[in-house]
Amino acid sequence: MARTKVSIPAWSSQWVFIMAAVGSAVGLGNIWKFPYIAGDNGGGAFVIVYLACIFLIGLPILIAEISLGRAGKANPVQAMRNNALNNNASKAWTGLGINGVIAGLLILSFYTVIAGLALAYFFKSLQGGFLAMDANEAQTLFNSEVASPWVLGFWHTLFMLFTLLIVARGVRAGLEKAINFMMPGLLMILLVLLGYATMTGSFGQSVSFMFRADFSQLTWNAVLVAMGHAFFTLSIGLGTMMAYGAYVGRKMSIVQASVWIVVMDTLIAIMAGLIIFSIVFANALEPGAGPGLLFQTLPIAFGQMAGGWVFGSLFFLLVVMAALSSAISLLEPAVSWLEQRGRYSRAQATALLGAFTWFIGLGTVLSFNYWESVYIFGERNVFATLDFLTSSLMLPLGGLLIAVFAAWTWQKSKRAEVLYFSNQLFQQFFDTSLRYFTPFAVLVVFAFNLALGWLWTSVILIVGIVAYLGYAWRCHQAQAG
Ligand code: PHE
Q: Its Gene Ontology molecular function terms (predicted)?
């Protein structure tokens, strides 16, 4: 096997690995993004499609991605090169790693802006800034927080510095400890807020908004968003889980860890949604308020409940920490790649990539004020374009390639060394999902969204499927022969 120049560390235990992976998965995607895209896309039907994507597509890809990391034993670019070499496949598979490294940096560039905003809200709450706040005041507060690029840029910079400090020192020392106390804390506060939500009088409406499915309202774009978000929220498709998988020892169970990740991630997203929509309906707010939703709803709740400033400060602190454990995992594929190439130290690699990403992030900062209506792609400003490009295109593409490699290219005997299921049924579900379901789902949704009209949809779909079947057939022949 090709060797990398730097030795690869290892998680100290199964539990630590699970915590780190859950820490990566649970973040702004669950608490900030999921509720607002569910609101934008009409709730119910969207949520059902999202859940289906999580369990039918997300879980198998998560297992495959971690396993490919463990088999490749390096950063995602090198790991895919190793995996390709070991299975007599083309070196072009490194493209999967490169796609991920770039997507990670692009996501991080806007992630730190939103997380920075949560940081600002933490300080606001500490100063009692939400006291007796009503819906109007909450909206005004949000508008004033994002109105100045200098202020927003300041928080973006601060949060980026936190991220870089942790990554530069090597992930585990500081992070393990933080995550151990953070996850239970976050769950507890969410439970308190859930209790509050049941008392708003609109909890029932919130439940029915989230779960009553009216499929006639569902658009293809919503399906693409739901699928993209399944990738985003589970941190799959861009090599984060591959990078973390490289540190997984032979005795650890990838399947067990993956089930934990999926369950925790889903639980937290649903709780956040129920809480936020209860507040939305109780205050006659708009569920489709977009990226500001979290920031325009929760301050109302904290402003009204007894001890609200304590809960409010704690909540935003936990959001910041959840975001931090995800942010470092967004940077990890790129940093481990640059470091393992051997020319830069970890600290240098972190600084270089951090500065680059920070700069790109300024585009998102401006998207909330001066450049709000400067459209790059369709009716999307810089922030929305980056979000679309990564979540809706790059991550599903990465996931598709992971599925194809794991299902067809990876030789059976080699795969069995890394990944084994004791349960036959699960094995079959896994194989079928990766072989057929995932590739077709991604292709179909892509074709519908990228294509202009039926003719092009059909052309893209047919070409995609023929190419796919051709590849699968070749791998099949090679393995049989
Ligand atoms: N899963 C993280 C979240 O939900 C974001 C993320 C995406 C982190 C991809 C790493 C890789 O916030």
A: symporter activity
Domain ranges, ordered by start, for the chain:
14-450
Assess whether the C-beta atom of 330 lies below 6 angstroms from ligand 1.
yes
Mutate to test the pocket of ligand 1, among 262, 330, 357, 392 (most ligand atoms within 8 A of CB): 330
Residues 327, 163: contact at Cβ < 8 Å? Answer: yes
Residue nearest to atom 6 of ligand 1 (CA): 235
Whether the per-residue pLDDT at 1 is higher than 70: the answer is no
**14-450: what CATH class?**
mainly alpha
How far apart CA 145 and CA 150 sit, in angstroms, is 10
| Separation between Cα atoms, residue 389 and residue 383, nearest integer Å | 10
Nearest CA to ligand 1 atom 9: 235
Residue of 326, 393, 402 to mutate, ligand 1, most atoms within 8 A of C-beta: 326
pLDDT in tens, 153-184: 999 999 999 999 888 877 566 566 667 777 78
Name, in order, each residue with C-beta under 8 angstroms of 207's C-beta and a sequence gap of 6 or more. 274
